[in-house]
Amino acid sequence: MTEQPNVVSHLIAEGNDVDRLVADLDESRWSTPTPAPGWTVAHQIAHLSAVFRMAALAAADPQKFTAFASRLGPDFNANVDAALAPFLAQPPGQLLQSWRAERGRAEAAVGALPPDQLVPWLVRPLPARVLAAAGMMELFGHGQDIADALGVRRDYTDRVRVLVEFAVRVWDFGYIARGLTAPDVEFGFELTAPSGAVWTFGPPDAAQRITGPAADFCLLVTRRRHRGDLALAATGADAEQWLDIAQAYRGPAGAGRAAGQFTVSQR
Prior knowledge:
Oligomer: single chain
Mean pLDDT: 94
Order of helices and strands: HHHHHEEHHHEEEHEH
Strand order of the largest sheet: 4-3-5-6
CATH architecture of the largest domain: Up-down Bundle
Structural class: alpha+beta
Largest sheet: 4 strands, mixed
Number of domains: 2
Distance between the termini: 26 Å
């Protein structure tokens, strides 16, 4: 992930995959419950629409985004509910069109920036390419919820490398979300891509290591599968703890998913 156009192209492709999950849904199926408690398919698309709206504003008009962010309250869940509300008020057909419009604006705005140009964001400014990677994380996680709700098995591709690199970059988010102090160590990661390629990150001789399939790693850090249902292994006590708390997003960790919640064919 060295060139932002590559990240943005992956972002577009991932968005297209999520779009295909809902493009032909009957109106009634938009109210299908997803594994996220209280959230339907419509909630998932509304959330993605709200996130992409913010990303487009941050990339296209930093001053307006900064003003918007300054008005957010301290209650994370209340902020999320407020962002979803205007989208959830729309009937499914209109929500689908809104989602596509917000995606398009974000993809164009982020894609127009140099990869390392800083863009204001909710916690701190991010390089444009990292903001695009955060968008990939949102699409992967919420797309998984939609697929699970609809009984669709996803075919993962090597695009997940964008999310893997993002999660390695923000490896300490799980500690931050729980008020814990991250250990003063560097983790090593050795992950097998869907294509069979092996991706390594961190010191090659790190005592604390995470190994396993890259797709499982992405399911773990988006908290869409319990670690007990994934083929990931830890070496070292700190790495073992990390598998329990890993997440690639700021904000409350949530309950995550229960062990055994999904069958092998759904993983």
